[in-house]
């Protein structure tokens, strides 16, 4: 049986993961509107990853005998001042998600919920990868000042990104 405090916090995280997905889908739509279809694909993959993260928490709560309580998802922003701002916001958002995961890990330790600690370790590792991936793209965009033929080369590269479902 899942600890009630953990259940409550994991329900908040489910909402946060769905919001992340919604944010990245909004970014994808914006990028499509400015004809950066590769980066739109990159963000659509982010959307799919965040949806799978939400479902991973959702299934864990149910598997542990808890109750899932879905809340309204906050409306995300819908326009930005270009590609660099999008990736700056994405990095900031991933850093925020990392802090949420770290907080969940702290609570799981405090509650001596070893199963949840084990479950959360995957997310701790995932956030390291997420931040590094976003920062790499951001640094490349900064190098090229978010424009020119190099932008289109990066856009083409981003189009090749594919979704790898969470196991």
What does this structure look like?
The structure is a single chain. The chain is built from five helices and no strands. The chain is mostly helical and 167 residues long. The chain has one domain: Ferritin (Up-down Bundle), CATH 1.20.1260.10. α2 (37-63) packs parallel to α5 (149-159) and α3 (83-110) runs antiparallel to α4. The longest helix is centred in the N-terminal third of the chain and has 30 residues, at 4-33. The chain is elongated. The relative contact order is 0.16.
Termini separation = 22 Å
Helices and strands, in N-to-C order?
Answer: HHHHH
Output the radius of gyration.
17 Å
Average pLDDT metric: 97
CATH architecture: Up-down Bundle
CA-based shape: elongated
Highest CATH level, the class: Mainly Alpha
Q: Structural class from helices and strands?
A: mainly alpha
Name the beta content range: under 5%
Q: Report the major sheet.
A: none
Number of strands: 0
Number of helices: 5
CATH superfamily descriptor: Ferritin, core subunit, four-helix bundle
Given as residue ranges, the uncertain stretches (5+ residues, pLDDT < 50) are none
Number of domains: 1
CATH topology: Ferritin
In which range does the helix fraction lie? Answer: over 70%
